[in-house]
Amino acid sequence: MAEAALAPGWLVDFRNASERAVSAEANRSRLRQRYASHACSVSLDEPYFQSIRDLNSVFEEAAEPGWDGYGGSPVSSVTLARALVLLESLPSFFPKPNISAFPSGEIAFQWQLGPQRMLVIAVNEAGRLTYAALTGHGDLHGTRYLAGDTLPREITDAYRSAAFPGTRYWVR
Questions:
Q1: For the chain, which terminal residue's Cβ has fewer other Cβ atoms within 10 angstroms, N or C?
Q2: Which residues contact 21 (CB under 8 A, 6 or more apart)?
Q3: Helix-strand-coil percent breakdown of the chain, rounded to 5?
Q4: How is the chain split into domains, by residue range?
Q5: In Å, what is the CA distance from 171 to each residue of 33, 50, 135, 159?
Q6: Interval 116-125: pLDDT, tens
């Protein structure tokens, strides 16, 4: 395994970007309030936790230079943190993504949504999101940046266009 693998408890450090800006006591209080009346749902939470495990596996596999046998750039811990923020920003209607590393050192999230319908989002150290979608009747692509804890609207719309062919307009 890669020497740069994350230490136990790494998820706590990257759980939510806004939580890093407050004291540990304030975080504990906020978490107690948030989860006081909520129980974890195995059926809803398991895909999220599996995605976190997949993300860690991809990081461990691609953390060394040349990890792909062709001189691929390593995935940095900063890119891993950005990918976790991206994972947490995915709307609840997105299914579990396939997660992989690109030779450029980016982490990619991919959804195969049907014949000639898919979405790929790649995130890098700077928080740049590069996306491409095949919608069955064309393609959509672009670049946006992570900002806060919501996925940019253009990417959500690209997913909807690929997942639900023939639907062109969305009520916001």
A1: C
A2: none
A3: 40, 20, 40
A4: 8-39, 42-163
A5: 32, 31, 19, 15
A6: 899 999 999 9
